[in-house]
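Field log, afternoon session.

UNIT: design team B
ACTIVITY: writing a sequence onto a fixed backbone
BACKBONE:
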């Protein structure tokens, strides 16, 4: 596979909910994009891909989810997404205004299931936390998650090769 195709796939996988950068970075390392500039460019592609949906999620996702929560086939899923975003936002808001920023960074940045840019942004949107502040916090969280996933991926690859 051509190296530019690999970077494009890293970018695209980073945009997928639930997978995000947490799946794209290990994928890049597994494909051999694990040293020097190749890892740096894969990291940048993953961050850009993970951040691209953020404005759309912040400004439109809540409206779409609220519209669809009463629909026959999609209602349960949309309600689940709204509740997930609301619960995530509530946990973050308990930290207060200054603590909210750091809590959002850590929520997005610690790579565990159910966290990430999509959920963090949706929670911030549902709570009207402010686009600029939320976006900066999400970006810092994505950068942190990328570092953690890069180190873990390289460590695990080093164990087996």
């Amino acid at each position: 596979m051509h190296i530019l195709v690999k970077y494009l796939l890293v970018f695209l996988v980073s945009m997928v909910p639930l997978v995000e950068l947490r799946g794209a970075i290990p994928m890049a390392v597994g494909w051999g994009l694990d040293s020097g500039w190749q890892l740096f460019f894969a990291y940048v592609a993953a961050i850009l891909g993970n951040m691209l949906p953020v404005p759309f999620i912040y400004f439109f996702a809540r409206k779409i989810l609220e519209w669809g929560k009463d629909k026959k086939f999609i209602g349960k899923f949309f309600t689940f997404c709204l509740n997930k975003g609301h619960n995530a936002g509530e946990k973050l808001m308990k930290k207060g205004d200054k603590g909210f920023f750091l809590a959002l960074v850590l929520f997005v940045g610690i790579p565990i299931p159910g966290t990430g840019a999509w959920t963090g942004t949706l929670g911030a949107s549902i709570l009207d936390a402010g686009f600029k502040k939320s976006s900066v916090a999400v970006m810092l969280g994505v950068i942190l998650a990328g570092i953690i996933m890069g180190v873990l991926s390289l460590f695990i690859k080093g164990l087996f090769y």
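LOG NOTE: The chain has a mean pLDDT of 90.
NEXT ACTIVITY: expression trials, pending approval
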